[in-house]
Every structure is written in C-alpha cells, then in structure tokens.
Amino acid sequence: MPIRRSKVLVKWIYENQHKIQAVRYCSSLLRYKELEESPQIEPEAVTAPQTTPRPQITPEFSFKYDDLQVRLAAPYQLQPKPEANELGFGKYFTDHMLKINYFKELGGWQKPEIIPFENLSIHPAAKALHYAIQLFEGLKAYRGVDDKIRLFRPDLNMQRMNLAAQRSGLPMFDGEELIKCLVRLIQIDQEWVPHSESSTLYLRPTLIGTEPTFGVMEPDSAMLFAILSPVSAYYKTRSDGAVSIYADPNVVRAFPGGVGNKKVGSNYGPTIAVTSRAAKLGHQQVLWLFGPDKELTEVGAMNIFIVYINEQGDKQLSTPPLNGLILPGVTRRSILELASQWEDLTVKEEVITMERLIELNSKGRLLEMFGAGTAVVVTPISNVGYLEENIPIPTMKQSQPVFQRLKDTLLAIQYGHIDHPYAKIIS
C-alpha cells in the first residue's frame, strides 16, 4: 500500500474510532476473561483519619504514565509569556495540555496524551453541560530559590479528586499515574513557572462526563484534562492587607448529605449572585453559614480559621470540623498538622457559631480570623458584615499574628527555603 494511502487510513481510523468500537471492545474481552478467571483478593481495610478522606473503591483499571504520548506544539502555536506583574488569576494559559479519554465500550481509560493547548470539542448533549457531571482540582507548581520546581502534597489532591469522581459517577483512576503525567506536562512547559515568589503555576485537572445522551445516569464516556495557568494574587485585599467578608444567614453553600465536601462545579456557580451582592456592599468574600445556630462553614472558596484565648487562658487555633459541609482543603490539613507541633498554640476542630464569634470578639478574646486555600495560601480577615452591621476583627493589630507565621511556614516549604516532605521536587 502506498505511504500516502497508509497515512490517510491511519488518520481515518483515529478520527472514526468511535464508529468501530466493536473491534477494540473485542480485544478488551480477553482482559475481562483473565480477571474473571483469576483469584480475587479483598483489599485490606484501612481506617483513615478524619482529615484525610480516601476513596472506598480502588479502580480496577487506570491509565498509565508509561503509555503517555506527547505531541509538542509547533513554533507558531507557542504563546508569548506575560510579565509576572500582569498575571492576575487564570487569565493566561501555557502551550500544552494533558488529555485522557474514557470510553466504557473500549475497555475504560485510553492512553494519556500531552498535546498543544486547544479548545475542546464535545457534543452539545454531553452530560457535563446539562447535569453538572464534572469536577476539578486545583494545585500549584512553585519555582524555588534553588530554581527547582515543587508541587505541594499532590497526593491529597488526587485522593480528593477520586472521592468527587466516585460521588459523581465518573471513572476513578490511579492518582500516582496522574501525578506522573502532570509532572511531565510541567516539565514541558516549565518556562511558564514564574521566576518569582509572588507568582506560581496553577494546575487545573478536570474530569467531565462526555456521553452525548439525556438522562441523569452514570456516563459511559468521560474526559480528564489538565491545563496550566501562571497566576499571581487571587483577589485584591483592603489597604491593611486583609479582606472583609459578608455573612448572609439567608443563603447556604452546602447541606448535610450533599456535595459540599467535594470539589464539583455545582458548588460554585450558585455562589456568584451572593458574592456579587457582597462586593456591592464593600466586601471581598462571603462567609457561608449553616443551620439555626449560624455555624461558620467556609469563606468564599477557602476554609475558615479563628485564633482566640480559650477558657484556660491559652491561645487556640480553631476551624470547623469536616462534617460533610466543608471541603477537606490541602492547605487546611497542612495548617492543622504544622500548628499542632507548636507548643505555644492549642489546635482544635470545633463548631464555631456567629453567636460564639461575636461573644469572643466583644470580650476581647478573639485575636484573629483568616481564610486558607491553595489559591490564596492564607488571607487575613479584618471585618465581618453581618445583619446590617460590620464587626471589626483585630487580626491586623496582633504583634506576632498566627496567620503570618503559618503563611511564612507554608511559603518556605513551597518555595524551597526549607526541606520538607510536603514538597515534591519535580525538576
């Protein structure tokens, strides 16, 4: 067969593989038969701590890094790199992306690909567009003082992503294999990692249901993709370096039995109207309350912390417990673990109500309030808008604030000022 005809045939097969599912499906039947005839070993039971929820099911099949295929961008496809002081958050994207398809009829996960950055092509009836069958993660790559690039605890992001996939009816995967693929993507686009300690490269792995059928049910096809974006500050603060937050008791972010503890897109869209209303009132974020006691849950897309003098006269760092309403943040967990090693601070997960917050503040026992998350690291809070009044929080008046100590410690780990097992060096 002439070379030209061979190329045309290969191109046709690639573009029309969805039409010849039976051919590939039959080959996968051999694998199914092997599994059915092989002895099945029950997974060992693992009891995970409250702060580290893990998927209850290990996927039988996953894509493999060893199968990764790379197609580099041509010179004309490369984008100019913006200056660090022009980045903002999520405005620019790197030259390449990771894409991994899942087709149940073809045996599950297909080979991962790194390709030039491109628009996605999905069917208008894709379940992600109609039923929010989708989820995402957010983590960062940091260029350290030694010029090495580091990730911060990516294994926790993979655990959380699989938990969200399990709840959403989307296919699970081996988190270590995805980390390896992400590392390769970063290595290819490594010059997009800012040479600055005020900027980072943000990673956004996303998993969406692509099956083009109506009906709220587990999709037979999905797509996992990851894009990279160099970023700086998530949002502007007030002149004192802190933010003001707005608590509206009439709206809730999450409810018991829901998906407030999963990073799914449906958690975020409904918050926009309330956030816009808060901005018009002069606040930067929304403090989400829940229940008749007005329990504090999250602030914006961050976990919430307070520092106060407890009944024993000790300085205490507290955050709401993981009760299903709250996203198990990687930064949240890291703060709890790091601060628990400090002898001058009591660390506790406890329910915090607005009544309790106001009482502590009125008695002069409330010292600090701050939010924490991947995008912002640690952000101090100096004001809470609640029931038509503003409650000043003395966060920025402390001589040696806990929030600053935590932020400095996290940044020192992330940018390589200190060696720490939380940091994964990738180059």
From TrEMBL:
Keywords: Amino-acid biosynthesis, Aminotransferase, Branched-chain amino acid biosynthesis, Pyridoxal phosphate, Transferase. SUPFAM superfamilies: D-aminoacid aminotransferase-like PLP-dependent enzymes. Its EC number is 2.6.1.42. The keyword Transferase applies. GO terms for molecular function: branched-chain-amino-acid transaminase activity. Pfam families: Aminotran_4. It catalyses: L-valine + 2-oxoglutarate = 3-methyl-2-oxobutanoate + L-glutamate; L-isoleucine + 2-oxoglutarate = (S)-3-methyl-2-oxopentanoate + L-glutamate; L-leucine + 2-oxoglutarate = 4-methyl-2-oxopentanoate + L-glutamate. The modification N6-(pyridoxal phosphate)lysine is found at residue 263. One of its GO terms (biological process) is L-valine biosynthetic process. Its cofactor is pyridoxal 5'-phosphate. It is an enzyme of class 2 (transferase). One of its GO terms (cellular component) is mitochondrion. CDD domains: BCAT_beta_family. Belongs to the class-IV pyridoxal-phosphate-dependent aminotransferase family. This is Branched-chain-amino-acid aminotransferase. It comes from Vanessa tameamea (Kamehameha butterfly).
